[in-house]
Amino acid sequence: MNKVFANATEAVYDIQDGKTIMLGGFGLCGIPENAISALVAKGISGLTCISNNAGVDDFGLGLLLKTRQIRKMISSYVGENAEFERQLLSGELEVDLVPQGTLATRIQMAGMGIPAFFTPAGYGTEIAQGKETREFDGKMYLMEHALHADFALVKAWKGDTMGNLVFRKTTRNFSTSMAKAGNITIAEVEELVEPGMLEPDEIHVAGVYVHRIFRGSNYEKRIERKTTCIQ
């Protein structure tokens, strides 16, 4: 099976209106920049996007929000995007805010084939409405379901043509779990090598989870919020 695609446009060719998409990264760190740009150019709409963050106004998922291509966001932190706020308050955007640990675990459970789990996070709040609760050892818990997606889009530092992926530092956050939770996982990498050129012990996601891979280009790697310390 040939998993290698020439570019992002070819790799996302079958993502259609109304699909559910996971997008890896944390903040603006390690986001699939090329794949997001390809989705903007493709012009599809009605997307449900699962991501810890919603990007900023002119970068990352903010680009898809600007063009009104996202119907629903499932996220944990969305405080850096004014357009997101505007669409939410005007009722244009459906939003499911999920505690960060719960979001991460729901994605992990999908990759592990576990349909649901119990967590104390959110019990007694609006998050608990309509969800099953249960008591364990005198403490109340919510049942949360695993979170699946039609497509998972992730960006890795390095990969081989069989789909094995290596991430660098913070970029590993969410991406390694999302790569295992999509029906089709598409990976963009900064460096694409031949099989056998990656050390087995450095591989974070095995190629069996990755369906398509391509070498990305022109990465901005923008810093979301810069803090300067003055001595």
Give an overview of the whole structure.
It comes from Panacibacter microcysteis. 20% of the residues lie in helices and 27% in strands. By secondary structure, it is an alpha/beta fold. Strands 1, 2, 3, 4, 8, 9, 10 and 11 form an 8-stranded mixed sheet that branches.
What order do the helices and strands come in, and which of them pair?
Blueprint: H1 8-11, E1 20-23, H2 33-42, E2 47-50, H3 61-66, E3 70-75, H4 82-90, E4 94-97, H5 100-112, E5 116-119, E6 133-136, E7 139-145, E8 149-160, E9 165-166, H6 175-178, E10 182-193, E11 212-215
Parallel strand pairs: 1-2, 1-8, 2-3, 3-4, 8-10, 10-11
Antiparallel strand pairs: 5-7, 6-7, 8-9
Protein name: CoA transferase subunit A
Keywords: Transferase
GO molecular function: succinyl-CoA:3-oxo-acid CoA-transferase activity
Protein traits:
6 helices; three-stranded antiparallel beta sheet; Glutaconate Coenzyme A-transferase; alpha/beta; 11 strands; CoA_transf_BS; 231 residues; globular
